Amino acid sequence: MTVQLRFFLIALMVQAIPSASFAADAKGWIEEDCFGSIFHLTKIDGISISREIILRLNCGSGIPLALCMTEADPYEVQGKRCSGDSTCEEATKAKVWLNEGNGRTKRISGRYTVDFSGQHLEGQFMVNYRKHKKPLICE
């Protein structure tokens, strides 16, 4: 294979992969409950693997997450940083910006900022949506 053909194939592969996945420095999953959406950022550049950042978003009572994905203003969220032994530290301030969705919520991307008593963390994230095996019963 010639060198030019190799570069061409590499360029095609780079364009086929969504650019948000390259920029994401945090990965994890998201799940919904009766009170909103919970982001679990488990693989974060610059943070030890034994820690996880949990962000709780409530974009409106009864509004599905897909309708909140508009790239509009940031959402103020509740945040905490938890270690493997279930010790958690509450964030003093946390915000999430969601990238515009296409109606499907298999993967959700955006950016976040979180402050923990003097430490500021921010970055891009790409999380996978986890659907509950049993239907939620909310009262």
Q: What topology, given as strand order, has the largest sheet? A: 4-7-8-9-1-2-3-5-6
In angstroms, what is the radius of gyration? 17 Å
Per DSSP, what share of the residues sits in E-state strands of 2 or more residues? 35-45%
- The arrangement of helices and strands along the chain is HHEEEHEEEEEE
Give the helix tally: 3
Q: What average pLDDT do the residues reach? A: 77
Number of domains: 1
Number of strands: 9
What is the molecular shape? globular
State the separation between the terminal residues, measured CA to CA: 63 Å
What features would you highlight for this structure?
139 residues, alpha+beta, 9-stranded mixed sheet, 9 strands, 17% helix
Structure explained in plain terms:
This protein is an alpha+beta fold. The protein has one domain (19-129). It is 17% helix and 45% strand. It contains three helices and nine strands; from the N terminus they run ααβββαββββββ. Strands 4-7-8-9-1-2-3-5-6 form a nine-stranded mixed β-sheet. 21% of the residues are buried. Mean pLDDT is 77; it is low at 11-22.
Brief summary:
With 139 residues, the protein is an alpha+beta fold.
Question: How is this fold's topology laid out?
Answer:
Elements: H1 3-16, H2 19-23, E1 26-33, E2 36-44, E3 51-57, H3 65-68, E4 75-76, E5 78-83, E6 88-90, E7 93-98, E8 107-116, E9 119-129
Parallel strand pairs: 1-9
Antiparallel strand pairs: 1-2, 2-3, 3-5, 4-7, 5-6, 7-8, 8-9
